[in-house]
Amino acid sequence: MSVSISKKMITYSAASTAVQAAIGYAQQNGWAVAAIVVDASGHMLAAGRMDNAPAAVAGFALDKARTAVLGKSTQDFAKRMLSGPELQLGMVNRPNICAWEGGIPVHENGVLIGAIGVSGAAGPEDVQCAKAGLDAIGL
Fold first, then answer.
1. How many domains does the chain have?
2. From 115's CA, which of 34, 82, 96, 97 has a CA 20 to 30 Å away?
3. Residue 82 has what pLDDT?
4. In this predicted structure, what is the pLDDT of residue 93?
């Protein structure tokens, strides 16, 4: 009987590259954001906040990443919350959950290895930045 499992995780190098690419994309578009990548357990690996981004957006970016590491984008999470008041009431009472756009799970070959969260611009713009981060690491 085995009593342990191994779990794939995004590397620091990939996480750092994704954060820098997300921030670079925001910079090119004149947006001020924070970007954070967490591993498959929801622990922060890499983070960045642009000079003009308010400090609070880093917390939102972390919560978006921690929500997305559950396996669905925060945008999908928000849609699911509309399915009934029970889910809405339960989610608002959980710490580190954020259903605003900008959190995307990171999969490699179908395996969840982490998530990226971006906050500071409008929701669709946060998503664009997060996708730019994933594009930079080939995912």
1. 1
2. 82
3. 76
4. 63
Confidence at residue 33, expressed as pLDDT on a 0 to 100 scale: 98
Q: Is residue 22 part of a domain?
A: yes
- 45-73 as b/e, with b when 16 or more CB fall inside 10 Å? bbbbbeeebeeebbbbbbbbbbbbbbebb
Q: Mean pLDDT in each 10-residue stretch from start to end of the chain (139 residues)?
A: 91 98 98 98 97 96 96 88 69 78 97 98 97 97
Q: What share of the chain is helix, strand, coil (3-state, %, to 5)?
A: 45, 20, 35
| Count of residues in the chain | 139
Whether 34 contacts 53, CB under 8 Å: yes
Residue 44 placed within a domain: yes
Phi-psi region of 138 (alpha: psi -120 to 50; beta: other; left: phi over 0): left
Q: Return the number of other C-beta atoms located less than 10 Å from residue 32's C-beta.
A: 16
Q: What is the CATH number of the domain that holds 122?
A: 3.30.450.150
What do you get for the CA distance between the two ends of the chain, in Å? 35
Q: Is 105 within 8 Å of 64 (Cβ atoms)?
A: no
